[in-house]
Every structure is written in C-alpha cells, then in structure tokens.
Design brief:
alpha/beta; eleven-stranded mixed sheet
Length: 393
C-alpha cells in the first residue's frame, strides 16, 4: 500500500554517513511492523460527512432503540458544504446537538455507518441535528429531562475524523445506557496515520477551547460533577486543559472533576509534571491501561523509547509508589475486546462495563473508591486488586 511504503521510507531513511547499531535496526524493524499494522487497520473505508445527514425512520421500528442524544463542541473548521467539519484548525467553537438511532442487536463495539441505503436495524443513524449557541450549550444539558447533576465530556484521540469521533461517542453512550446527553469535544485531528506530529500540535492548539468548555460546565450551579473521559492523545490534551484550569484559578470546576484517561498517550514524566502542576483533586484520576497496546508501543519507540502512561504494568512496584504519591486509580483493561487489531480501542468496550464499576464501587468502597491498581477480568464482571494503598494514604 502506498501509505505503508511511505511510512517505511520515512522510518528507515538515514543519512549515508550514519551507521545504525543493532538496537537501532531492531527499533526500526519494530516500528515499521507495528506502523504497517496501524496503516492496515485504517484501510477500511472511513465515513464521509454524508453520515451526518439526518435519516427519517418510520416509527415504530423494533430494530432500533429509542436512541441517544449528544452534544458536539468542536474547534474544527466547517466543510465547504456546511454539512460536516474538516481537519483544519479554527479559533472558537461550534456547538451542535445530535440525535441517533441505535441498532437493537449491536455487534459489540463495531459501528456500521450508513450508506446510500441506510438500514436502521444495522446502522447507527443520525436522526436529527441542530445548531446551538455558546449561550444555550449548557442549558441544553441541564434542562434535559434525564439530567441528574452530572455532565460527561469525551475527548477523542489521534487519527480520528469528526464523523468517527461522533459515532464512537454515540456507541459508548448507548452501551453505558446514559440517558443524559454527553458532550463530545472534537479537536482538529488530521484523521491520518501519517498525522501523528500534526495531531500533537493540534491537541496543544486546542487547550484553551477545551478549557472553556469545562469552565462553562463548572460555572453552572446545577452541575455537581463533571466526568471527563479522554482517549489516547486526547488524554494529553485533557491533562493540559485541567492544568490550565488550575493556573486560571478555577478551583470550583476542578472540585467537580472526575478524570478518566483511557490508554493515555502521555510521556510518563510529562504526566508526573502535569499532576504536580494540577495539584490535589477531590477524586483520584483513573487510568485505563494495557501492556499489550501496540499503538502506544509505536508512540514510545518514536519518542526514543520513552514510556507512555497507557502502557504501565499494574504489577510493577513503581506503579504502587506512583499511585500512592500521586493518588491514582490504575485499571488494567487488557482482557477487554479490541477491534482495531492494536489493542488501543479497548476503552470502547469498557463503556459496556461502566455499570459494573459503579456497582463494585458501591459494594466495596475500599476498591474503586480509593487509589491503587485493579484488573478487569475477561468478562468485565469483576475487579481484582494487585494492590490497594487507600489505607496508607
């Protein structure tokens, strides 16, 4: 494939006068092999902005659920057609509310996008959308009949188009069975395997916009808790925005935050620095990690073998000390299903077991209510703890 060929050339090209060591050669081979897997995993057709056009479904239809509602906040530029959003950066935010129909018999975390002949029993479908202003963004959340005092924000990761991030949010919302409308923060990822560096720049560019979304939610007296869920590079963006909240003196918003970082693509030392700047939070940060995440292996190798937070080993004694000193809950999700072939999208499966987490926490506050390390079993039906440091903290 052309994209694989270009990636191999980019990763293996060296000046003639340099002599590669055996370690360097092994690293290049590993990166090339895994990067090729990433490219191949993205070779299936990706959704176009056409999937954002609302579809009318004749009611009643037993093949679909009642559907889910979500709100998108994005600093992507609008497409020329005005239907979708591009990878171009834009100052300021666009807000929209979307309504989805969801297939009753879903294939796990796989998402079937509609084509020219949409099938409600097979496809996730946009059934309605409306533009929102910055002023009524929060009111649409707190005035929703299902609002329960919690606002949820999802921040997608590297190599995501707007359409992919939107539909993934709909899938997770359906699986977690959340009636209240979550918020997708869609930063301008290039949506390309080759766009890693561009995406890192775009995530940094988006810090102020995500910060403004969190501040707006935090200022509402009706919102008692803000759950911030971020995946991959979105975790790096989210930590930077939370750090900015601290620098801006937004203690009220920080006090409402519950942060969940799924497979965070963050250098371990950068993460420790971010935690130091952020300071104490009322709720420990939760990390969803997996040693077998091959996408983060690529990230680590490209960063001169610097470790990523999303690949930590929960059985490592160093992690116990880090959990204790930095007040972290580290959850190993390696047993959960991955559909991307890289083990980097297990967070999407995790949404199905959010109820299990809540139930476990309610039954045993010593486990998930405190800091430590925990492992999901293969069915996602139980959590065991390699260690817990709550009593020592």
């Amino acid at each position: 494939m052309p994209v694989v060929a270009r990636m191999v050339m980019a990763l293996t090209a060296l000046p003639i006068h340099l002599r590669a060591t055996r370690a360097t050669i092994r690293t290049k081979i590993a990166v090339t092999a895994i990067a090729s897997s990433i490219a191949l995993s993205g070779c299936s057709s990706r959704p176009t902005e056409g999937v954002l056009s609302p579809t009318v479904i004749a009611a009643p239809n037993p093949t679909v659920t009642e559907g889910v509602t979500l709100i998108a906040a994005t600093n992507r530029a609008k497409s020329k057609s005005g239907l979708g959003y591009t990878r171009e950066w834009e100052k300021g935010l666009h807000f929209e509310r979307y309504r989805f129909s969801v297939p009753t018999n879903r294939d796990g975390t796989n998402i079937s996008y509609p084509n020219s002949k949409p099938k409600p029993g097979r496809d996730y479908l946009v059934t309605g959308r409306e533009n929102l202003t910055a002023d009524d963004f929060v009111s649409k959340i707190v005035d929703d009949p299902a609002f329960d005092g919690t606002a949820s924000v999802f921040v997608h990761g590297y190599n995501n188009s707007f359409e992919e991030a939107l539909y993934r949010t709909a899938q997770m919302t359906a699986d977690v069975d959340a009636a209240r409308p979550p918020v997708l923060f869609a930063w301008p990822s290039a949506g390309s395997v080759m766009g890693y560096v561009a995406d890192r720049d775009a995530s940094l560019y988006s810090r102020s916009e995500l910060t403004s979304v969190l501040e707006a939610l935090g200022e509402s007296v009706k919102i008692k808790r803000i759950t911030l869920v971020a995946h991959s590079m979105g975790g790096f963006l989210s930590m930077e925005s939370v750090r900015q909240l601290r620098l801006n003196g937004r203690a009220g918003t920080l006090g409402k935050l519950q942060i969940i970082l799924a497979s965070p693509d963050i250098d371990v030392d950068v993460f420790r620095s971010q935690i130091t700047d952020i300071g104490d939070l009322s709720t420990p940060i939760t990390l969803l990690v997996s040693k077998s995440d091959r996408a983060l292996t690529v990230s680590s190798l490209l960063a001169m073998r610097r470790e990523r937070v999303g690949k930590v080993d929960v059985h490592d004694p160093i992690i116990k000390e880090a959990a204790k000193s930095d007040r972290l809950r580290v959850v190993d999700i390696s047993s959960l299903q991955s559909v991307d072939g890289l083990g980097h999208d297990r967070f999407a499966s995790f949404a199905r077991f959010a109820g299990t987490l809540a139930e476990t926490e309610a039954q045993d506050r010593r486990i998930l209510g405190n800091v430590g390390a925990f492992v999901f079993d293969t069915a996602g039906s139980a959590v065991t703890g390699p260690f817990q440091v709550a009593g020592e903290n």
